[in-house]
Structure formats: C-alpha cells, structure tokens
Amino acid sequence: MTDSQLLLQVRDLTVVIGGRHILHGVSLDVAAAGVTALLGRNGAGKTTTVRGILGLLPRQGSVLFDGVETVGLPTHTLVRRGIGYVPEDRGIFAGLTVAENLRLAERGQDPAYGLVHELFPELRQRARQQAGTLSGGQQQMLAIGRTLLNGNRLIIADEPTKGLAPRIVSEVAVALERAAEAVPVLLVEQNLALVRRLAGDCVVLADGRTAHTGPAAALLADAEAARTLLGVGRRPTTRPTTRERTA
Ligand SMILES: Nc1ncnc2c1ncn2[C@@H]1O[C@H](COP(=O)(O)OP(=O)(O)OP(=O)(O)O)[C@@H](O)[C@H]1O
C-alpha cells in the first residue's frame, strides 16, 4: 500500500502508565477506505493503543493522521481534525433522547444529518426515544451515527459488539458496514466472525507490541497462526489414539 492510501500511520507508539510500560512500540497502518481490524488477546494493549492514538494517554512515537504528525497535539485538536471515537462503553447519554444525543455531538455549521439518517433510518424514527431504552444494537448505531455527523475522516470503534447477544451483533455489523462505506474505520474487535465479514487488513497486538499485520482473511484462514496470535481454535491433539495406546 502506498503512503497516499494510508490515513493513519502509527510508528513505535509507546505508553507508560504509573512507571509500567503498557505499549512497547506499536506500529500500524489504517487504510484510507474500509475497515482495518485491531486484534489481540485480552490485555494485549488494544484499548491503550486507541487511547494513545487519540492522545488520551501520554505517549511517545509517531502518529501521522493524513500525513500530519499528531503526537504532541491535544485530543480536542485531533477530534477537530476528523477522528471520531466510539468508546467501549458507547458514551451515550442514557437519560437524553436520540435527537438530544445527536444534537450534543454537533460541531460546526452543517451537521450531516442527511448521511446519518440515510445510513441509520431508525435514528430518525426513534428521535424522541430515550437513548437508555434503545436496544444494544440501536445504541451502537447512535454512538456510530454521532461520529458521522461532523464530517469525520476516520472512526475508531473499540469493541462495539462486546457483551451483545448474537442477534444484536448482526445489527451492529450492519451499522459498521454502512458506516465504513462513508468513512474508514479502525475496529477493535474480539468477534472474529465479524472481523472476517468486515475487515480488509488486520493488525494483531501481543504484549503491547505489533505481532502481525496483513489481510484479515489470510490470518483467519490460517488456523495455526490464529491460534498462536489470537488464542482461538483448538490445538491439534498430540495425545495417542486408543489404538496407539493399546498397540
Ligand atoms: N490505567 C492503567 N494502569 C495500569 N495498567 C493498565 C492501565 N490500563 C491498562 N493497563 C494494563 O495494560 C495492559 C493492556 O490493557 P488494554 O486494556 O489496552 O488491553 P486490551 O487489549 O484492550 O484488552 P481487552 O481485550 O481485555 O480490553 C493490561 O495488562 C492492562 O491491565
């Protein structure tokens, strides 16, 4: 991929919290279109990477967004430059209506309600509903829709399907698919079926480092690599069969 096809280039991102190195030099690229998945076992450093990219944690290294260095810039500047964030807890206001949640997210003169309602008609239909009474999938639509209001150029979504029932996961998959048609997405995700469906490239972290980068489909088709890097699938049995044991 050429540099011009890359929207985000992270190099040697290091995060130290309370004297402990959490990230030891993460490097990753996010393509200027589609979904790039950020994968890894629990505790590998995915959320810390996202928070480091956004400047929510003190970090060192380089984060180029559209070719411009952003390490050293405050989070609000990054947000103004066009990075939308869907945090793990969704960050919506449960006591406010859908319309109020969207209004609070407005920035600038011309919020893109047309795009948001085109992608997520339910948000228009449920404009007056309290956000806390939406289903988990609808809440994710609201959280994602909110990031599309402001002409963002990249959406970072942190485990949007975590804790959701399978039926709701499919709703969120559709929401992400629709969003990614409009804006590139960096998706932190543990649900590999969803990754297979949505992601072009993937980056795998292990122990605060980049352990693998490449096409998501190739990694997920390689059972041994998926097991080693992601801890999924069963180890091939090495125990002798009954016949071998009794021979
Ligand atoms: N504020 C903090 N203080 C100390 N240690 C932290 C802090 N935040 C994260 N860690 C540690 O850093 C490591 C990486 O955490 P992180 O949440 O980034 O992993 P993750 O890959 O997102 O995991 P999960 O899939 O479980 O959400 C873990 O060992 C975690 O305990």
Automatic annotation (TrEMBL):
InterPro entries assigned to the protein according to its UniProt record, in alphabetical order: AAA+_ATPase, ABC_transporter-like_ATP-bd, ABC_transporter-like_CS, BCAA_Transport_ATP-bd_LivF, P-loop_NTPase
Alphabetized UniProt keyword annotations: Amino-acid transport, ATP-binding, Nucleotide-binding, Transport
All residue ranges annotated as the ABC transporter domain in the record: 8-232
Signal peptide: none
Pfam family, one: ABC_tran
GO MF annotation list: ATP binding
Similarity annotation: Belongs to the ABC transporter superfamily.
Protein name per its UniProtKB record: ABC transporter ATP-binding protein
Originating species: Streptacidiphilus alkalitolerans
